[in-house]
């Protein structure tokens, strides 16, 4: 099961024959680790769970593996707040593509370790609601929100071996 097409077919086959189990909350598992500001990359990044794919990929991988050992069929990427919009709160919005890509790679590596012919394991990209409110007097506009979600989804969809980066601010479908 090396290609995205093969994984999609395996997912469809699995869904046709049984109920699949999705992992649990990444944030809760991270809180249980009692991470320090240094784990996040310094005080200014403390609380930016998405940055841990860069500073503590071992922790993210361990959490994925714990869910897989517990029987999860599908694990989610550590990208709930991975839009450039949310990452800008930590001044790391320029790293959105790398962080989303790395999170997908870490999840895919863990899923591949547990995949067997009888029980394939899958990865789902996690996209959270952001921390902004849609408003006509501040916050974010609906088109800006669409663009941020579109960019993150495109970043997560890329094949792990795809090294070419498309420019940010691609136009989402209308």
Helix amount: 40-55%
Largest sheet: 2 strands, parallel
Radius of gyration: 17 Å
Q: How large is the count of helical segments?
A: 8
Low-confidence stretches are 159-169
Per CATH, what is the topology? Answer: TIM Barrel
Number of domains: 1
Number of strands: 2
Secondary-structure element sequence?
Answer: HHHHHEHHEH
Overall pLDDT: 88
**How far apart lie the N and C ends?**
33 Å
**CATH superfamily assignment?**
Homocysteine-binding-like domain
Assign the structural class, choosing from mainly alpha, mainly beta, alpha/beta, alpha+beta, or little secondary structure: mainly alpha
Shape, principal axes of CA atoms: globular
Q: What percentage of amino acids are in beta strands?
A: under 5%
**The first-level CATH class name:** Alpha Beta
Task: Give a verbal description of the structure.
Helix 7 crosses helix 8. The protein has helices spanning 4-17, 26-32, 37-40, 52-55, 57-69, 84-87, 96-114, 142-157; strands spanning 74-76, 122-124. It is mainly α and 174 residues long. The protein starts with a helix and ends in a 17-residue tail after the last helix. It has 8 helices and 2 strands, in the order αααααβααβα. Mean pLDDT is 88; it is low at 159-169. It has one domain (4-157): TIM Barrel. Strands 1-2 form a two-stranded parallel sheet.
């Amino acid at each position: 099961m090396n290609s995205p097409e093969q994984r999609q077919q395996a997912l469809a086959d699995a869904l046709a024959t049984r109920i699949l189990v999705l992992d649990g909350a990444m944030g809760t598992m991270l809180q249980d680790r009692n991470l320090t500001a240094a784990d996040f990359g310094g005080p200014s990044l403390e609380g930016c769970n998405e940055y841990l794919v860069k500073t503590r990929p071992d922790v993210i991988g361990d959490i994925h593996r714990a869910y897989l050992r517990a029987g999860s069929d599908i694990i989610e990427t550590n990208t709930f707040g991975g839009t450039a919009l949310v990452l800008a709160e930590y001044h790391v919005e320029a790293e959105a593509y790398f962080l989303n890509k790395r999170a997908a790679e870490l999840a895919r590596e863990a899923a591949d370790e547990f995949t067997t012919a009888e029980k394939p394991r899958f990865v789902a990209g996690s996209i959270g609601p952001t921390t902004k409110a849609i408003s006509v007097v501040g916050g974010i506009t609906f088109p800006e929100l669409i663009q941020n979600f579109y960019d993150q989804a495109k970043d997560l969809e890329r094949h792990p071996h795809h090294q070419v980066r498309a420019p940010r601010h691609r136009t989402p479908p209308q």
